[in-house]
Design a protein that fits this description.
Blueprint: H1 3-26, H2 28-83, H3 87-168, H4 173-185, E1 191-195, E2 198-199, H5 208-215, E3 231-233, H6 242-251
Parallel strand pairs: 1-3
Antiparallel strand pairs: 1-2
The structure holds zinc ion.
Length: about 260
């Protein structure tokens, strides 16, 4: 095999590993976003229960005030009752007192209900606080793990970029452009091995005279698959492996 093909193969190998690391890196933002969503959902439950709790506290204050106001009215009516001159006026005030006392009873009932549900909301807030704390811890641990995985992948990518820069040095710029164009079209793979006189990537047959040229060590030109346009290379099987090679080639028509 020609030296330049060896270099392209080396590049292909680095690019394949680099593609794998990049694919791994590309899912990290989604994983972090999912963690944030889970945390926010848990926080929303907590906020909701705090909100309900504070609403019941406000209602309670309002009902307490109601009770006080009706009691104040009762006191006023009773004071007035001492000053009235007629029996009718006295009876009318007495009636007002009864009405006000009925209102006090109603307001006290509402207040009691409110206090009972207030205790429920109290418990809900405590439970929500507990589960938010647990979610925070759990998510924090997962975040740490994801971040350390990402740091490792970043490091690996950095190393692969350096390795690639080194490999690319010995490849002429126009050939590199050519390689990259083909790679872009085919999900990152620009090179295909010829096996059983066919392109191992797409299965297209290789013309016999091209195959003969590919077998020679001294060819100076690159040959492409006529169907998928990948750059072709051929590795001569070791002596004695020919029979096995042919047998396996006839089984593997696919790429
Ligand atoms: Zn092909």
């Amino acid at each position: 095999m020609k030296e330049i093909l060896r270099e392209l193969l080396e590049l292909q190998d680095v690019d394949t590993r680099r593609g794998g690391v990049r694919a791994r890196l590309s899912v990290f933002p989604k994983r972090i976003a999912e963690l944030n969503q889970r945390l926010e959902a848990s926080r929303a439950v907590l906020e909701q229960s705090r909100q309900s709790h504070s609403t019941t506290l406000k209602d309670r204050k309002r009902y307490e005030l109601d009770v006080e106001q009706w009691k104040e009215k009762v006191r006023k009516y009773k004071d007035q009752a001492f000053q009235v001159k007629t029996n009718e006026a006295y009876k009318a005030l007495q009636h007002e007192v009864e009405m006000a006392e009925a209102e006090i009873a109603k307001a006290e009932d509402r207040l009691l209900e409110q206090m009972v549900s207030g205790e429920q909301y109290d418990r809900q807030v405590k439970a929500a606080e507990k589960s938010f704390k647990q979610a925070e811890e759990q998510i924090g641990a997962e975040r740490k793990e994801i971040e350390s995985e990402k740091a490792a992948a970043d490091k690996e990518l950095g190393e692969l970029e350096a390795e690639r820069a080194n490999v690319v040095k010995s490849i002429p710029e126009d050939l590199l452009d050519h390689y990259q164009r083909i790679a872009k079209k085919h999900g990152g793979t620009a090179i295909a091995e010829v096996r059983g006189e066919a392109c191992s990537a797409c299965g297209a047959r290789i013309r016999p005279h091209v195959f003969q040229i590919l077998r020679r060590e001294d060819t100076s030109e690159l040959y492409h698959c006529e169907l998928c346009t990948r750059i072709l290379y051929y590795i001569e099987p070791p002596a004695g492996a020919e029979t096995a090679k042919q047998a396996s080639a006839s089984q593997n028509g696919e790429g």
